[in-house]
Amino acid sequence: MFNAVPSAEIKRIAEKATGTYTLLYIKDTEVVWGYLAEERMIQVMDNTGAAMVYADRYVVKSGQTEKSPTIDYQFGSLRDDFDFGAVVMLRTSSLKEAASRMNADYRFAGFYDLRLKLSQKYELVHINEYLYTEQERDLRLSGQKQFDYVDPRNRERQIEMEQACTEHLKEIGGYLKPLFKSVDFNQAAFTYEASVIIPVKNRVKTIADAIQSVLKQETEFPFNVIIVDNHSTDGTNELIESLATDQRVVHVVPERTDLGIGGCWNMGIHHPMCGKFAIQLDSDDLYSDEHTLSKMVNAFYEQQCAMVVGTYRMTDFDLNTLPPGIIDHREWTPENGRNNALRINGLGAPRAFFTPIIRQIGFPNTSYGEDYAVGLAISRHYQIGRVYDVVYLCRRWSGNSDAALNAFQVNANNLYKDRIRSWELQSRLTSDR
Question: Rounded to an integer, what distance in angstroms lies between the CA atom of residue 315 and that of residue 287?
Answer without folding.
Answer: 12
